[in-house]
Amino acid sequence: MSGLVLKLAPNERVLINGAVIENGDRRSKIAIKTPNVNVLRLRDAIHPDDASTPVSRACYVAQLILSGDAEPAEGRRQLLLAIEQLSQVFEDRDSRILLGQATEAAIDDNPYQAMRRLRELLPREARLFASAADRQSA
Fold this sequence. Notes:
Helix content: 40-55%
Oligomer: single chain
Number of strands: 5
Strand order of the largest sheet: 3-2-5
Radius of gyration: 16 Å
Distance between the termini: 58 Å
Number of helices: 5
């Protein structure tokens, strides 16, 4: 049976099905054999105050599903709505591919993969906001 292998840095924390687990003083690997386990590296977690842009809010919704803080069906509905709204803004081919992959992951009840794809849009979103600010100041 294959599974997820986590490589953890010393003292790194990870959330697994709602339980926070902290690694010891050495690097380690953990193999998770159970399918459909919700896993979130806490270093990747978005603080609620930092979910201030459309992409970061969509990532945060996926994170809430992973952490068990959102009811899965309602969280998936909100996530798909957020992705749909993002598709109105991101029109380039690469962003469309990422949004398509995020949508597929959300539909397949894989919020972690949806979040990973959406996180790839964060630098693009930052550039869009920066160029908009530059145009306004000009």
